[in-house]
């Protein structure tokens, strides 16, 4: 009887989101403003969020592991970040002239990130990667871009080739110019020898290698031992600019991002997400020699009305200041929380038995793949069973645990997640795995 009552409550609670989705479809293509937000039969709609919790329009409280696809490292509504934004609102929201705030944020980024001699503030990760590629081309006087299978660097033409994230399930995006994609070469991740051969074949025209140091948009895929140092060595030997796309890993794996975490210094790095802890702000950072190519110092044109807007910049200063002040407690805590979840899931899988699963994790990030094989690149990630993952997503959501709905995304833990969240989450995974096992029979 209790189970029937619970089911009816969930069914009734979904009606508000269904109504909103039906309205949305009339004015928003597909009913959403980003394809990763859609899942069948319709997505739930959010009403508010705080800490590790997200409240839906149907008044359900979910433990959130999407966390703005990695943006909310400190958790939803972190007080110092909100206070900084509120304080700035009273002073103005947009000036389109320089502010001291921009200098302060750039100084913080330069202090945190090993490769950041200079910084250009932008609005989004896509904007950052697009202009980092333009910088590399201008600096090297070469055209071709090398990226990796399953790497996602935003939705612009030069990188929307064999991309991850929402594009991972599509063969290609219509509307991308063939002339643009022809300048992009795709190499397998975790294969340094193939990258070296690729660069050698294109030695005279390879402007840059752009990579997520940890793939986070084809599920979560970690670099093999010495792989990143091999990539750094190969690019240096061939005068090819190395761009770390740290839109996901930046300020999340460590205060200095993957560059600090792995001890690798790329030529350029791009940031967004955790930089603003929920506010729209991004950055391009790199060596002075390359960064000074940007106008007005140089001839690489990049401009934006909202770049360096004082509200987002104030929030980002507060977020980075918090990370600087408490890095010795924040990063170990989120890593321990993530490890507890992953260890709990593994123990439940072992107890239940009969389900082939691989779990990848690093720092505050993890993902479950329904495959018995090790997942170390796009090809092995795509061997995972998407139907079982969708069943996992549905069962977790029924138990008020929200993970990204796609196998080809990553789960994120925040500073706000606590031991109670861990216990409820592991229990939810356990019940979900039992349902999946029943379905296998």
TrEMBL record:
Enzyme class (EC, first level): isomerase
Query: Where is the protein found, in the record's own terms?
Result: Cytoplasm
Tell me one GO biological process term: protoporphyrinogen IX biosynthetic process
So what does this thing catalyse? (S)-4-amino-5-oxopentanoate = 5-aminolevulinate
Keyword line: Cytoplasm, Isomerase, Porphyrin biosynthesis, Pyridoxal phosphate
One Gene Ontology MF term: transaminase activity
Main localization of the protein described in the UniProt heading? cytoplasm
A Pfam family of the record is: Aminotran_3
A cellular component annotation (GO) from this entry: cytoplasm
The N6-(pyridoxal phosphate)lysine modification is found at: 273
Task: Name the InterPro entries for this protein.
Answer: 4pyrrol_synth_GluAld_NH2Trfase, Aminotrans_3, Aminotrans_3_PPA_site, PyrdxlP-dep_Trfase, PyrdxlP-dep_Trfase_major, PyrdxlP-dep_Trfase_small
Q: What is its EC number?
A: 5.4.3.8
Q: Which cofactors go with this protein?
A: pyridoxal 5'-phosphate
Q: Which domain of life is it from?
A: Archaea
Does Metal-binding appear among the keywords?
A: no
Question: Which PANTHER family does this entry report, sorted A to Z?
Answer: GLUTAMATE-1-SEMIALDEHYDE 2,1-AMINOMUTASE, GLUTAMATE-1-SEMIALDEHYDE 2,1-AMINOMUTASE 1, CHLOROPLASTIC-RELATED
What name does UniProt use for this protein?
Glutamate-1-semialdehyde 2,1-aminomutase
